[in-house]
Amino acid sequence: MILRPDYVNAIMKFVDVPLVKVLSGVRRCGKSTIFEMIKNELLTNFRIDQNHIITRNYSQMQYNDMTSKEMYQDLIKCLIDEKKYYLFLDEVQEIKDFEKVVNDLLENNNVDIYVTVSNSKLMSSEISTYLSGRYVSIPVYTLSFKEYLNFKK
What domains lie within the chain, and their CATH numbers? Predict the structure, then answer.
């Protein structure tokens, strides 16, 4: 795994801020790996209980044809106590109307939400309208030259 501290540091400023943290970029640019780094930070430096970190990767076959209502039910059943939960929703654009689920979870539950989306979906007015003012977007790119040199040693 190539460490990408610039992205992690940019995102960590928003931990526990009531905004959806949106990592956007092309597929295979490292969004999911950055998710893992953020989760490690939460576990190690914020001492968040592993049971309060919920991860879903909606590009996996088990979520194929999942509706937004099913997505909501799946996530809400994980929130079993009043403590804060950290939701990591990868490739969330695969679920039609996911914005409504994310918005409802953010408004009505003790959650901190992180999502990845493809660039084309993020640009849609649907997301920017529905989550207007309630999200921060962090664009993720493939390796920088510095990261590439580190990778190649």
Answer: 5-139 (3.40.50.12060)
